[in-house]
Structure formats: C-alpha cells, structure tokens
Design brief:
Pathway: One-carbon metabolism; tetrahydrofolate interconversion. With 298 residues, this protein is of the alpha/beta class. The chain is built from 10 helices and 11 strands. The structure holds NADPH dihydro-nicotinamide-adenine-dinucleotide phosphate and 5,10-Methenyltetrahydrofolate (GUE).
Length: 298
Amino acid sequence: MADIIDGKAIAEDVVAKVKTQTATLAEHGVTPGLAVVIVGEDPASQVYVASKSRRAKECGFHSVQHSLPAETSEDALVALVEELNADPAIHGILVQLPLPGHIDEARIIQTIDPDKDVDGFHFINVGRLGTGALDSAFVPCTPAGAMLMLERVRGRDLSGLSAVVIGRSNIVGKPMANLLLAANATVTVAHSRTKDLPALAATADILVAAVGRPEMVRGDWVKPGATVIDVGINRIPAPEKGEGKTRLVGDVAFAEAKERAGAITPVPGGVGPMTIAMLMANTLTSAFRTAGLEPPAF
Ligand SMILES: NC(=O)C1=CN([C@@H]2O[C@H](COP(=O)(O)OP(=O)(O)OC[C@H]3O[C@@H](n4cnc5c(N)ncnc54)[C@H](OP(=O)(O)O)[C@@H]3O)[C@@H](O)[C@H]2O)C=CC1
Ligand SMILES: Nc1nc(=O)c2c([nH]1)NC[C@@H]1CN(c3ccc(C(=O)N[C@@H](CCC(=O)O)C(=O)O)cc3)C=[N+]21
C-alpha cells in the first residue's frame, strides 16, 4: 500500500517559511504585493482566486484582487496589466486562466512584466526554465509544487529514474517535463496521440498525470513501487452524496493505483494546495529580487 504524499501538510511548511521570510523583508521596509486578476464569473475560478487572495493575506502580503466582467475588452485588460507592471507595491501578477474567448491569452501573458510573472508563463521565464537558468526563472506553480512533493519521496536528484508525464500543456506538462529533466530524470512526455499509453506508463518510476480526464490512469498502468503525482482536478457527479452533488477526483484512479504505487498524491489535498503555496513562494521571491536581496530556497 502506497504512502500518501500530504500536499496540505507540505503546503503548510512552504507557507510557514514564506511567513518567516516576509517578516525578514519587513525589516527592510518591503511588503510582498500580489495582484490577482479574474475576468468573468466561472465559479471554479472564483473559488481558486478567493483562496489565493486569502493565502496572500495570511502570509502578510499586500493582496489585491481585480474582478472584471466577462465582457471586458482585450485592450482594457492589457491596460490593467500595464498599470500593475508600473505599480511598485506589486511584485506578482496572476491573470487567472482561461480567459473569455474574445481575449487573446498569449497577448495578455506577454504583456506581464517577466519580473512580476509569478505564474512563469511569459516567454522569458519559459526560456529560462528551458535552458536550465533556474536561479532567475519563475517556475510555474503547479509543477514547482509537484517537484517539492516528489522531493519528499525521491530526493532532489532523480538520476537513473525514468519519468513519464502524461499531458503537454504549457501550464503543467511541459514545465513539469523540464523540471524533471533538470533534476536528471529520463523523461518521456505522453499526450493524446501517444500509442499504448498504459504500457508506456507502466515503465515509469515517476508517473505524472496532467490530462483533465477523471480517473483515466488505472491501477495496472502503475509500475509497482512507482511515485505517482496526480495533477488532475476534475469535478464529477456524486449521486451517492445526494442529488446534484459533486466530488473532486484526479486523473488517476486513486483506490486502484495506491495498491501498486510506492507513494501517491491524493485529490483533493495533493498538488492543488501546493500550487497556491508556490504562488506565495514565487511572490516572495519576486519581492526579494526587487529589494536586491538573495531569495530563500524552497
Ligand atoms: N492542481 C493544480 O493546481 C492544477 C490542476 N490542473 C488540472 O490538471 C489537468 C491538466 O490541466 P492542463 O494541463 O491545463 O490541461 P490541458 O487540457 O491544457 O492539457 C491536457 C493534456 O492532456 C492530453 N490528453 C488529453 N486526453 C488524453 C488522452 N486520452 N490520453 C493522453 N493524453 C491526453 C492532451 O494532449 P494533446 O496535447 O495531444 O491534446 C494535453 O496535452 C486538469 O485536470 C486541470 O484541471 C491544472 C492546473 C493546475
Ligand atoms: N493563471 C493561472 N494560474 C494558475 O495556477 C491556475 C489558473 N490560472 N487557472 C486554473 C488552474 C487551476 N489551479 C488550481 C489551484 C488550486 C487548486 C486547489 O487548491 N485545489 C484543492 C481543492 C479545491 C476545491 O475544493 O475545489 C485541492 O486539490 O485540494 C486547484 C487548482 C490553478 N490554476
């Protein structure tokens, strides 16, 4: 039976460190500032954004939230981002994705000052990560959090281990693959065109699922003893809880996979809370850099 990697507990450790370091920064007269921008009324996005703002306040940050109507024009959103770029009280800018269809996401992301891009989605930060310039990059929060969870089980050096990442998005799959490679794992990236995925997955010492398909990864896809990182967040109907009720599941069939894995992350309480904790860590890092101070390692 697998060890369960407790994302909530590790996230609390990260946040505790952020709080301590925020106090250190205060001695230099600096308060980390995070701006979260949300366009439209998607209920799931509202929940995530609210918990980001709550965490930021808990860390002692200056926290501002801009909630804009779904009809907001692309130019108006660009103007807001430029205003936040110029605001010295703001060290981190997060524009919640996805954006409404009439707004070009790429244009918005490339408008964010790379030095305030705490999501790590700007070309500059993607390039830094891709070339191994990890000291200056902002690393996307979800894969960064997943790596900290992996570290608890496998350490920082993954030499000799094979990793399979299912999913190749710019937000999760690709940066995850780059981080695993930087940690010396031998990495394969799978996606919707991959042939015989179950057999490929079963070769992995480290299996990362970032697909968005509820419980797609079955128990017999898991190599005995493997470390399984489930990034998926899927809300599915739960009639057993009552009519119209839902529950969250990952991309991995947890009950089956935990019988074979050596260690596994749960959903909820796994990668999700780590994502928010790493957003705080990245914002703190940005404030340290702006102040000309060496940021702490996480
Ligand atoms: N825990 C957290 O903090 C976060 C969780 N998530 C969750 O992670 C999951 C992935 O998110 P994201 O990367 O944004 O999703 P995307 O939809 O952008 O990417 C999904 C990837 O999965 C691949 N895929 C789809 N179907 C299959 C299949 N049948 N077999 C193999 N690969 C497949 C796609 O392949 P192709 O490229 O060929 O289309 C694509 O590369 C979602 O559940 C999302 O909610 C996301 C962000 C943060
Ligand atoms: N610019 C941008 N950056 C993001 O990082 C970003 C984004 N857009 N858009 C959406 C995705 C998704 N995401 C999550 C964050 C926390 C949880 C989380 O805390 N989940 C809890 C459960 C929350 C619940 O109950 O719904 C858990 O897994 O335990 C989940 C998902 C960040 N994303």
